[in-house]
Amino acid sequence: xxxxxxxxxxxxxxxxxxxxxxxxxxxxxxxxxxxxxxxxxxxxxxxxxxxxxxxxxxxxxxxxxxxxxxxxxxxxxxxxxxxxxxxxxxxxxxxxxxxxxxxxxxxxxxxxxxxxxxxxxxxxxxxxxxxxxxxxxxxxxxxxxxxxxxxxxxxxxxxxxxxxxxxxxxxxxxxxxxxxxxxxxxxxxxxxxxxxxxxxxxxxxxxxxxxxxxxxxxxxxxxxxxxxxxxxxxxxxxxxxxxxxxxxxxxxxxxxxxxxxxxxxxxxxxxxxxxxxxxxxxxxxxxxxxxxxxxxxxxxxxxxxxxxxxxxxxxxxxxxxxxxxxxxxxxxxxxxxxxxxxxxxxxxxxxxxxxxxxxxxxxxxxxxxxxxxxxxxxxxxxxxxxxxxxxxxxxxxxxxxxxxxxxxxxxxx
Length: 413
Known about the structure:
The protein is built from 12 helices and 17 strands. It has helices at 11-27, 33-40, 44-56, 123-140, 179-187, 196-207, 267-270, 272-278, 289-306, 311-335, 350-361, 380-392; strands spanning 31-32, 60-64, 70-71, 74-75, 77-81, 87-94, 97-104, 109-115, 148-155, 158-159, 166-168, 191-195, 216-221, 225-231, 234-235, 339-343, 368-371. A hairpin with a 6-residue loop joins strand 10 (158-159) and strand 11 (166-168).
């Protein structure tokens, strides 16, 4: 059930109530005012005030009702989010790719470009190239800046406990610095920054295949492993905001040297690196961004041969997938999640995914197993879009005053 209305008259409470109405209209396109009032348990008059405010601001528009066509002799008028009412940018920076997505406030993609940083290990240089490309995207799509509501930025790294400064991003080779402040100063916009794996998990439970799932473990398997633990709809971040970093839990005492400098991490026996190591394509783990990219390309080539039935590759993938499941089992049994989601370029391969599932099913776990090769899991680039929508549009953080006075003709058609 949707949360009830706040009844205080403070501006903060009004922002909360507006966010609830907007989210319901987005989730239930065509919903009418009467149904909104019923779901939120508030009077029709209160709903009408907020809806009229949103219509005047060109955020919401009237449409055909999704419910009964006639009620009490009158045709109901539905509501939907106006696709030209506003926009967000989703930016993703991971070791293998940097991308920018422009979307409207319905989450529909308008434009998407890749950025090819000349020195990705240099954050200042890379961020300037991202900003330049983003400016081009906004200009060619004629996006009014007062209708750009925010930017979601997902990164292959972890923020410090203040959720502002980058604590470490070993895959990118970036040092510690205040990433949030740098982005906000550069773009002159509100920016929400999140770890890329957490970003995917949050997008999934809010907008994706696993919407409404409250307890989940997400694993993204690529050259390395990324993990996210979600409890009661919230990411388990830990005391230093490093919670869920599953790739670096101990799997084999005194095992292979991991990229983090320790030995025997789960990455060394259950990730893409374990596959190429077993097949003799890598003798040591990646310790620089260039080595990471080289080994990732080797992995891509090996995974390509899997489609042609290379038995050695299939065997290595199956072993890694089963090993991942075995070592995650204590965490799964302890947490007792509703669902386990496996995604990522390695996680989506059938040999790896099927072995992962087969191993887990042996233990009669009472949870759903969602595999990226069967379900459409949100991509990192779209997860960045949903981060912006969730944190800065369908949220009390939405800056309504930014656009309240914008005339209709100022919108993008």
